[in-house]
Structures are given as structure tokens and as C-alpha cells.
Design goal:
Elements (H helix, E strand, L loop, with lengths): L1 H19 L3 E3 L2 H17 L1 H7 L1 H6 L4 H16 L3 E3 L2 H22 L7
Antiparallel strand pairs: 1-2
Helix pairs in contact: 1-2, 1-6, 2-5, 5-6
Length: 117
């Protein structure tokens, strides 16, 4: 149940992006749900390998290259999923940061920690 709620929270965060950033378009909530699923799979399966491969650059940039990697993955997913679009890399960079903040805030508000009532 928690996984489903997390997926819906991430979809809601994606759906909220066009209201905050004009460079992001989401045509319907179904596209946001599909993009949240693909983004979750990419972050689970591909991102750890890319982080490992880019470790020297990440260390030289004091970890800031992770933001670039997140933007590239976000931009790639929006290019794959129909119904969601980002105009360019810098838009994807900003959108990935805003998406993370919205997702974190909604998760903090809506999901309870284990052991809390």
C-alpha cells in the first residue's frame, strides 16, 4: 500500500510541475502516472550504475554532478513518455529539483513513519 501511495505522490508532483514551471507540459494525469513509474524504474535500475560510472566526475565536482545526472535522467524519461515534455536541459535541471522538493514535501506530509500512529 505504501508503494502505491508513493507512486501516486510522485505522479502528483509531476502533475504539479507545469503549474510552477512553464517549460514543462503534462497533458493528463495518466501521463504523469506513467512517467512516475518509468522514473522510479530508471532511478532504481539505471541510476546506481551511472552514479558508479561517473564517480570520478562526481568527486571532482564535490557531488554537484549528481544534479546533472538527475536532470539527464529526468529529461530522458520525459522524452520517452508521451504526454509529458520538457523544453531543454536547463528546464529539466530545474524541473528535477522542483520535482524532488514537491515529492519530498508530499511524502513527509502524507506518509507516516513505521512505528508512528
Amino acid at each position: 500500500m505504501r508503494l502505491l501511495l508513493t507512486w501516486l505522490i510522485n505522479a502528483a508532483a509531476l502533475f504539479a510541475l507545469p503549474f510552477l514551471l512553464s517549460s514543462v507540459t503534462v497533458t493528463h494525469f495518466g501521463a504523469a502516472i506513467l512517467a512516475a513509474l518509468v522514473l522510479g524504474l530508471v532511478n532504481t535500475l539505471i541510476r546506481p550504475l551511472l552514479v558508479l560510472l561517473t564517480l570520478p566526475v562526481t568527486l571532482l565536482s564535490l557531488g554537484l554532478f549528481i544534479l546533472v545526472l538527475n536532470a539527464l535522467l529526468f529529461w530522458g524519461v520525459t522524452n520517452l513518455v508521451p504526454g509529458i515534455a520538457v523544453t531543454g536541459f536547463w528546464s529539466a535541471f530545474l524541473a528535477s529539483i522542483v520535482y524532488s522538493i514537491i515529492s519530498w514535501a508530499l511524502s513527509t506530509l502524507l506518509l507516516k513513519k513505521d512505528g508512528q500512529s
